[in-house]
Specification:
The structure holds two protein chains of two kinds. Chain A is of the alpha/beta class. In chain A, 44% of the residues lie in helices and 16% in strands. Chain B is mainly α. Chain B has one domain: Non-ribosomal Peptide Synthetase Peptidyl Carrier Protein, Chain A, CATH 1.10.1200.10. Classes of the chains: A alpha/beta, B mainly alpha.
Chain lengths: 245, 82
Amino acid sequence: MNGRPDGSALVTGASRGIGAAIATALAREGWPVGVNYRSDEDAANAVVDEITSEGGRAKALKGDVADTDTADALFAALEEEFGPVLVLVNNAGVRADGLAPMIDDDDWDKVVDTNLSAAFRLTRRALRPMIRSRYGRVVNIASIVGAVRGNAGQANYAASKAGLVAMTRTVAAEVARRGVTVNAVAPGLIETDMTEGIAENLLEHVPAHRAGTPEEVAECVRFLASDGAGYVTGVCLTVDGGLTA
Amino acid sequence: MAATATREEIEGRVFSALEEFGAEPDQINPDATFESLDIDSLDLVELAQIVEDEYGVQLKGEDMEDVKTVRQAVDLVMSKLG
């Protein structure tokens, strides 16, 4: 551990759920945090308020990561206020479930654009300043769906998350010797708005006999983003209560 | 937004970057190939970032494809500044 340079953290999709918990956890580590959101400004401001009430620094940043111009805008805003983005957490994700014959092109594209292509664009934008700084942490929020197993009704989501893990491994190998790590976290069943309604029939398969919390996912991200995790790169860390064990 | 810089300045900055990447200082000259200096593709990505930060010149992957020597890199930056 050589100590980390000054900079900031960006968490996409951070107005609620797992993203909000990650933003809060990184702020507690001392990072000024960009709390990206697409539409729920009040929720994003609530996350910022919580961070600042604990003595941290944060800024709400509106932007749909599926738009190709968003990455530059988010980075420019953070760089100006807090310095280079040295931690990037690609958390923003969407679902548009259906059995494969029922997934139309729009539902396919929407999910792959947000969950995979946007994560790549943000990662690409993040890497060069990280390489220059000889320090960087990219954490991609994947899912056990796709990354580890299939799940009927989520061909688009699974494909996007499997792609995200493959991108993670590849980019990790490219930049490892500049002190930049790229990892993924694959949550299982976590209590959030996004998993509402799909939890009940899955719980009996979870060895831990409960759903995980956003904070438990955030703790994994906190570790991977830490200075001490500098030799951990290219992994996909499952946090699923033993579901895929 | 390209800044103005002389060829000597650009060459000096490229030399110092190559040294920072681990090239042997006495091996660095305009005719040296990146291969002979053990400069690889990731080093060139970083060189592109340095040039962008300091001279406002954007170098794309396709620009860099044919760049094999130090002189060619300096030529490329000068042409973008032009």
